[in-house]
Amino acid sequence: VPASPERSLSRALALPRSEAGTRRLIGMLQPSSRDFQGLSGADAEWLRGQLLAALAERRIPDLAVPLIVEDLRTSASPVVVAGAARAIRKCGIGDGAKRELIERAKARIAGRDEFVAFGAGGPPAALTARQELDSALAPAAEERPCCGGGGRPSPTGVVGGAAAGEAFARAEIQDQDGRRTSLAELAGKRHSLLALFYTRCMNPEKCSATVTSLGRLARRFEAEPGAPDLQIIGLSYDGAYDLPRRLKDYGTDRSFAFGDRAFLARCTRGWPGLRRLLDLQVGYGDATVNYHEREIFLIEPGFAIRRLPPESLSEPAQLLAWLEVDRTQKPPKKQLRRYGRLP
Amino acid sequence: MDDDRDSEAYRQQLLKEVEAAASEQPARVLPGDVSDYKQQAAQDSGALAERIQRLTLQPDYFDESVRMLLAIAEESKLPVQVRVAAVQRLSAAKFLTNCFEPFHADFIEAMRRLATDASAKVREAALERLTLNGDQVAQKLIRESLAEGAKPLLRTEKAVQMLARDDHSSARPLFRELAEKGTGKIREEALRALGSDPRSAAMLEAVADDKKEAAPVRQSAADGLKAASPPRFAKLVAKQILDPDEDDKVRAAAASAVAHTQDIRDRLSKPKFAEAVTALGESTTSRVLRKSVRHLADRLRRPEG
């Protein structure tokens, strides 16, 4: 049964206001949740915005803050940024950081502003998305300091060891020139930076920017003496559509420096296992992706995998530092789902 | 030096032409002119619509013009032709992004209201505008209106066309149903729309390859297949071009598709295929096929072109 965004919203609004209820609401926000399954891209955005606004009615745990910040940083959807604006108002992330996020979001949706109504069957919208963003700058009564927006986000362990080895061995990938190999063979050789994208993504702040940044990194590492032994892989969320030629054209249009250690690829076998292993935050409509987060992973040759903060690609120095840490740390033993537990 | 003189002469000539063209343009219409004409009791709706289409969008008058257009579009007592003209002029104003920003939210809200207007033409104009940007409300209204027993908002083929504008619209089950059970233009649009879905490639290939199907239906399925699976499309058209039992018009269309699409041409750039195409160009008695096939043979000989 395809999900219905209205039904999902009703369920979300009926969740108890306890910590457990909030955890379930945050679970519903994940694009990989059942609630996003089969929705159109526009419906998925609507639901995401509504759930964010519902979250704003509760005490927001720290672990949800990066998610809210990321939507303000990248979303081009008025309803999503308006929902995120309501939620960010409750997060004490510092006036300067908040103002910058809000101003960037306002500029991004300037040419597509619309009135946004929240809640199921509530009154008609009184504010536009840009007005919601302006309101977010006013201090909220319940605002409290939290750590989510302050400091530098750190990589999180996802999975390592045998489970990763098995899923990687089953995952066959094909690059932009049609060459096929298993992900295990590829990732077993050297450290890999794996970023997810798809060519039909409509948001220039997400996939297009990701592939452009990957290409820039590849060029930098290629030219830099003493650069790390790192391969750069852009992997499509939409393997059935992103055939080699499409990958090549997409990369070429974004000056991606294809080479032995830099390529774009699609998964031709073993995608469900890989998606589960990496806990990919992507939802699918009936023909393509309907919503996704920016997802970047650092994989070491022993298959320890770390999820990197989404802004990593624009901070090569930080990336190199993490790579160095990754070489010295033991791989994580158990899976830590992103939103699986509250602090 | 000659080149410089030539380019200067060309520039002068161009300037003269631009000035001449500008002087021939009808005078711009100010908001006050539209207002005055609208007040006249015996107004001609065609003339009013024409004035609206020429309503100035110059910065000095932009805000006044847009406010007037929004009001006219929603004034249900005005003739449909006039209201549709207002929607079209608003669409032109939307291109002036910076000026239009303050009106965008009101514009979307107005278009969403007009999407269920009593007039079919007004509905179509509003939905046309909204679906260009993948509007959630518009897509939902269209999907719901296509459900069995629902009141249709648009002609079905138009509805399919609008939903198909967005690869993310998740209307595949609907497109599949119409591609299987629909007729005429509806079926053609549904087949074309399935191009966004790689899982529909086998079905599209089967229809495009079925000689019992009508030519426009096969053509639509081929269009869909080209987007859904370029490798399958390449195989199909290669077969069609060289199949002597195939309809000449289908073979000619297939040859043109290969000649004009580098991706497909690259997939078929094998000497054996190029030789067969050249031989066909020399032997066929069909004029339409000969022209397309010779063009293709030429492109295959010069792959970089």
Provide structural commentary.
The complex is a heterodimer of chains A (343) and B (305). Chain A is an alpha/beta fold. In chain A, 41% of the residues lie in helices and 15% in strands. Chain A has 13 helices and twelve strands. An eight-stranded mixed β-sheet of chain A has the order 3-12-11-6-7-8-4-5, sandwiched between helices. Chain A has a two-stranded parallel ribbon with strand order 1-2. In chain A, strands 9-10 form a two-stranded antiparallel sheet. In chain A, helix 5 runs parallel beside helix 7. Chain A starts with a helix and ends in a 15-residue tail after the last helix. Mean pLDDT of chain A is 87; it is low at 147-152 and 331-343. Helix content of chain B is 70%, strand content 0%. Chain B has 19 helices and no strands. The longest helix of chain B has 23 residues, at 2-24. The radius of gyration of chain B is 26 Å and the shape is globular. The A-B interface holds A 38-43, 45-46, 79, 110-115, 128-130, 200, 202, 240-241, 243, 245, 285-290 and B 97, 100-101, 104-105, 108-109, 133-136, 139-140, 166-173, 196-199, 229-231, 263, 266.
